[in-house]
Design brief:
Number of strands: 10
Shape: globular
Distance between the termini: 33 Å
Number of domains: 2
Structural class: alpha/beta
Number of helices: 6
Largest sheet: 5 strands, mixed
Strand order of the largest sheet: 3-2-1-4-5
CATH class of the largest domain: Alpha Beta
CATH superfamily of the largest domain: ATPase, nucleotide binding domain
Strand content: 25-35%
Helix content: 25-40%
Order of helices and strands: EEEHEHEHHEEEEHEH
CATH architecture of the largest domain: 2-Layer Sandwich
Length: 224
C-alpha cells in the first residue's frame, strides 16, 4: 500500500509517505502559522524524495482534530482535494490518537496515557488511552484541572497541554513522554494503515471541533 499522510492541526506542518509497511519519506516543520503556504510544497517534496507520483497513491490520511481551527481546515481541504483529484479514499485520524501513537511502548508500560493539547483559556483537549493505546473514551474539551478524571495513576502525558495538566495536578504521579508536542504525519500514517476500514470518499471525512470558532458536531460539513 502507498499512503500519503499529512497534519496541520497543531503547531507543525507534517507529511509522510508510507509504502509497503514503512515510512519512506517524511518532513515536519514546527510553525505557529503559515500551514496553507507550506503544506503543498512539502507534499511535493515528500513525493519526490520517495520517488512516487500522486496518482499512484492507494490512500490519503489527515488529522481531523481537535486542534487549531484554521489548521484543521487547511489540512482537510488539501486532503479532500487530493482525494478527489486522484480518485482514492481518505482516512480521518484524531490528533490525540496520533499524539499517543508517538509514545514508546517502554514508557507506556504500566501507565495510562493522556494525550492533551493546549486549547487556551485554561482549557485543554484531552483523551485517555490504555498502555496498548486503546482509547478510554472520546476526545473532550475540559479544564486542565479536570483532565485526569477517570484515569488511574501513574499517567504518561504527551502533547502541548502537558505542562498545564502537570501544574493543575501537583503531587500527582505524572510522567512526561519523550515525544513531540504535535502529531507527526508518520504516526498518522501508521494509524491510518491500521484503520483502513475507515477509508471513505474525501467529502465524507469531517472535522472534529470540540469548541472555538466554527465549533460544530463531528458529522457536520466543513464550513465554507
Amino acid at each position: 500500500m502507498k499512503l500519503l499522510a499529512l497534519d496541520c492541526a497543531g503547531l507543525a506542518c507534517s507529511a509522510a509517505l508510507w509504502r509497503d509497511g514503512a515510512i519512506v519519506a517524511e518532513q515536519t516543520r514546527e510553525m505557529a502559522r503559515g500551514h496553507a503556504e507550506a503544506l503543498m510544497p512539502m507534499l511535493g517534496e515528500v513525493m519526490v524524495a520517495a520517488g512516487e507520483r500522486l496518482d499512484a497513491l492507494d490512500r490519503l490520511a489527515v488529522t481531523v482534530g481537535p486542534g487549531s481551527f484554521t489548521g484543521i481546515r487547511v489540512g482537510l481541504a488539501a486532503a479532500r482535494g487530493l482525494a478527489l483529484a486522484i480518485g482514492c479514499p481518505l482516512v480521518g485520524v484524531g490528533t490525540l490518537a496520533a499524539l499517543a501513537e508517538g509514545t514508546e511502548l517502554a514508557e507506556r508500560t504500566n501507565h495510562t496515557v493522556l494525550a492533551v493539547l493546549d486549547a487556551r483559556r485554561g482549557e485543554v483537549y484531552a483523551q485517555g488511552f490504555e498502555e496498548d493505546l486503546t482509547p478510554r473514551g472520546p476526545p473532550r474539551a475540559c479544564l486542565a484541572s479536570e483532565a485526569l478524571i477517570g484515569l488511574g495513576p501513574p499517567v504518561l502525558l504527551v502533547g502541548s497541554g502537558s505542562a498545564l495538566v502537570a501544574a493543575a495536578h501537583q503531587g500527582a504521579r505524572l510522567v512526561q513522554a519523550n515525544a513531540p508536542d504535535f502529531p507527526e504525519a508518520a504516526r498518522v500514517a501508521a494509524l491510518a494503515v491500521r484503520q483502513d476500514e475507515r477509508a471513505r470518499p474525501g467529502h465524507e471525512v469531517s472535522p472534529l471541533y470540540l469548541r472555538g470558532p466554527g465549533a460544530q458536531a463531528p458529522d457536520e460539513p466543513l464550513p465554507g
